[in-house]
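Course assignment 3, question 2. Fill in each field.
Student: A.L.
Task: Predict the tertiary structure for the chain below.
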Amino acid sequence: MKIEEFLEKIETELKISKASPHTIKNYVRANKEFLDFIQKLPEDVSYEDLKKYLAKISHKASMSIILFLSAIRYSFSNILGKDPTLRIKRPKREKRIPPVLTKDEVKKLLNSAENKKSKLMLSLIYACGFRVSELVNLKVNDLAPAEGIGYVKQGKGKKDRVFNLPLNLNKLLIKQMENQKKSNQEFLFSGPKGKLSERNIQKIIKKVAEKAGIKKEVHPHTLRHSFATHLLENNVDIRKIQELLGHSSISTTELYTHISREQLKKVRSPFETL
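Answer field:
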C-alpha cells in the first residue's frame, strides 16, 4: 500500500469514528513524519523501525511521544490489522502545574481588553471554565441568559454539559447575541470569514496580557486553570469542579489541588514578622 493511500485511509477511519479535526490532523501528520523517516511502505514497518524513530524524537515531551504512539497504534491496527507499538513501554505523563493568575491579574486582564467583544470572550472563558474549542463552537442558541445557564454541546470526549452564566455578564452577552442574530450568524463569536478560530482567541489573549503588563505565560487555558483554582480556594467541592470543567476523571481535576498547595506555600507565617 502506498503511503498516500495509507494516510487517506487513516483520515477516512477517523472521520467515520467522529474524531475532531484536530485529532485527524495530528494523527495523519504523525504517521506521515514516521513513514517519511523510515522510508518504508506501511506494511513493511517493524518494531525496530519504531524504536529508531522513538530514539530520534526522544528529546520531545512525554505527552508528544504518547500522542505519537496512539496515532501509530490506531492507524496500523485499524488499517493493517497489526500494532507495532505493542512491545513499546509508554512514558509516564508529566504532571506539570500550569500557570494560574491571581484574581487581581484576572481583573487587570479583563480591564485591558480592547473592546466589549474581546472582554466578553475572555470573561466567558474565566467565568465558565471553557476550553478554547468550546468557546469558538458556542452557538447563540446554546445560551439562555434569562435562566442563567448555557450548554456546551459535544465538548471534549463528545460530552454535553451545562454551565452557569454570571448575572453581571448578561448585558454584554445579550447585546452580542442580538448582534449575531441580526447578522444571521450561528455562532456567538465570528469574524469576517465566519466562525473564529482557536488561533484567533490565542492571539487576542496574548495581546491583552501584554497590554495588562502580566509577566506570566498567559493563554486561553490559563483562564480555565485559574477558574478551577479559585473555585477550589473558595472551598467548592472538587467533584462539582470536575463537573463544571467537563473532566471525565477526577484525577485530572485533582491537579488543581497541587496548584492550590503551591499558592499556599507562598503565604508567609505571621511568626516571621515578629
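Instructor remarks: Residues 103-265 form a domain with the hpI Integrase; Chain A fold (CATH 1.10.443.10). The chain has two domains: 3-80, 103-265.
Grade: pending
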